[in-house]
Amino acid sequence: MKTLSLLAYLRDAEDRAALELALSDFPGMAREIREGDVANATADAPAWTIIPEFLVLDVSASTDIEAALADLVAAAPEGDTNVIAVGCQERLDIYRRLRRMGVSEYAVSPIDPTEFRGLLNDIRGDRLSQGRAINPDRLIVTHAVRGGAGASSIAACLAEGVTRDHGKRALLLDLDIEGGSHYLTFGVEPAEGFLGMLETPKRIDALYLDRAMRRPSLRLSLLSTVCEVGPPEVDPASIDAIILQAQRAFDYVLVDLPCRALLGRELLAKAGHIVLVAPPTVLGLRDTLHTLNYIQANGGAGNVLVVVAKTGEYRNPVSENEFQQRTGCATLSIAFDPRAAEKTQVQTQTLLDAQGPIARQIEQLLARMPSAPQKKKRSFLSRLVRS
């Protein structure tokens, strides 16, 4: 299924034409208007990969609307959307029942283009007025407190593990604009449209994001590039815009935030899950404490895991226990194997594919991620039908 902003199932040809007319004021909205109703949507739902921003469903032939929506819930993938139901009766009780179920709006057939255009504007306005924010529980930030600590290798391992081993859909966002390497790690081309997204956040929508991303695997998508001419003029609002759009399409957004990032440091206070990567040195411990102070000072409340990354030999190294005592955070030690790192780099693999102790250490790290198998949560669509 291609990336759509609006997907509609309408039985009546006049309603389909009226909806097309209503959408003439939204030229940038990718849409598909199909003949059918909620039952047809349920039949097609298993093939969907991304939930559109708007889902317009004809429920006029449904004798039991709640049951029809429950069937759709069971068939559709997880995601976030605005459901607009279209019925043939102008009844307040139907409207109230649908609203209680989580449906955004109810329109009466035959569709009035002007009124429907107003519905779309009202829904979008409501979302903006509610201050739609990043979902911290689905944002994982890996941050190097000092350069050369191996944070990018760890971020790549997390992205591969979350998608391959945990079966989740994820976007890996590489914020090392001047020296990004994840596209090399996963053997794909740089995301050419990524720099344009960073410069003009107003252009970011589902279609733009879909075209810019690279896809190393079925569940993993990647935004990674390198700016060869100097740092671009980045709009700070672009990062939030990318993550907000990505969280509609993916289970998790993983961010690789380098030590001296041009942008994105504020994500440390927004993420629900933070992996701080530090070398086992006094300076590594100092910079870890500084980063934790920054998170606390900016209202961050995420779950922090400190990874003490040993990438070489150190004189008077700081132990994992001391890191844990001084930071008050859960701590994990990872010892990089130069041979394994070289082998995976040549074969465009991550350290998760390596043999030996480091792969087991990475697996321990993955087990602490929110994507690790646990009790199944209710999907977004299940909130449409509440017991």
Automatic annotation (TrEMBL):
Question: What InterPro entries does the record tag this protein with?
Answer: P-loop_NTPase, ParA/MinD_ATPase
**Which keywords does the record carry?**
ATP-binding, Nucleotide-binding
Gene3D superfamilies in the record: 3.40.50.2300, P-loop containing nucleotide triphosphate hydrolases
The reply on keyword ATP-binding is yes
Q: Does the keyword Ribonucleoprotein apply?
A: no
Q: What is this protein called?
A: AAA domain-containing protein
